[in-house]
Amino acid sequence: MDKQKYIFLIIILGSLSALGPFSIDMYLPGFTAIAKDLHTTPNKVSLSLSSYFIGISAGQLLYGPLLDRFGRKMPLYIGLTVYILASIGCALTTNIDVFIALRFVQAVGSCAAAVASMAMVRDLFPPQDSPKVFSLLLLVVGLSPMLAPTIGGYVILGFGWHFIFVILAFMGLAVLLASRFGLPHTRKPDHSISLKPKPIITGFTKVFMHPQFYTYAVSGGIAFSGLFTYVAGSPILFMDIFKVSGETYGWIFAFMSISFIGVSQLNSVLLRKYNSEQLVYFGLALQCIVSIAFLIAAMNNWLDLYGTIAMLFLYLGCLGLTNPNTSGLSLAPFSNNAGSASALLGAMQLGLGALASMAVGIFVKDSMIPMVVIMAGSTVLALIVLLIGRRNITVLTETTDTDNVMIH
Length: 408
Description:
- This is Bcr/CflA family efflux MFS transporter.
- This protein is mostly helical and 408 residues long.
- It has helices at residues 3-25, 31-37, 42-70, 73-92, 96-124, 130-141, 143-159, 162-182, 197-208, 211-241, 246-270, 276-299, 305-331, 338-363, 369-389; strands at 395-397, 405-407.
- It has a single domain (7-184, 194-398), classed as Up-down Bundle (Growth Hormone, Chain: A), CATH 1.20.1250.
- The chain is 79% helix and 1% strand.
- β1 and β2 (405-407) form a beta hairpin.
- It is globular, with a radius of gyration of 20 Å.
């Protein structure tokens, strides 16, 4: 594959992956404005974030078998159409409960793009290149937290929060057109794959029971829920507790993303010398140290605004190291059922993220401590799962440049 085509595919696949994060991040500065306009509270508005995570998690399981049965493109087109219509509905609604429900539908549509993107990485690139490709996708996806909240803050200031969802609808349309004309058909429909519930459940069970999958998917998903905790809690933390403006919050959010995205790109360099498994262990151990230190500082009231930003910056950097490698290691053993494996991986990550964000909506009100407790607890649990799960892996399907198989 020539370099120009490689870059072109990465940009389109990254755009597919970024649609969901843009839908999450762009409206965050509008929590207070939405609450005021829909006669509710910011905590109730945060449930629209939880419903989005639930929708995108459930939708992953729907699209996985569809992508394997009908090929990658037709389910993708249908999902993006649903996303566009739901985005328009969010722009027009005047009721908070309807808004929360439409966010669920919007998520179900957008996750077609996320699952298709991950599956097509497995289709288009060899397993040993997967961590590098995922790191590059994170670079494209990284434009979301860097740009979306900042843009959203100024859009809300100039045009109101409704216009955010008009923009998202047009983004969905642009991604749909790019997918139609820019992506190859990477997989032919396979009508031998059944869409009946029992075979689908059996297929997901077979994927999940692979020791390498459940070890890295579960530990990686639990660790990655810390990001969702941060995303859900940051509007309350910065705008309600530290009293910064929506525009300032957007800039803080953009600055934070530099850590996650920067380290994810450093991961590509580190893979030249270390394998994915080593980087996962190092990343999770460092994340444990940072999160526990963060919790101790928060409980002793040692952190002001800048100290809080510094601790979150370090925490998100650790996630930039662990996520590409746990994703690559989780999917490496699968080829024919890459769509189902990608869907299950995404569903687990986003389902755990939904639980974390719901906990934020319930417990985070006038203190950062509950948010930090969730982040630290999930990190420690992820490391425990990794240490226990690796005992059941006898042959590791590796995804580095140097080794395809590593015997323990």
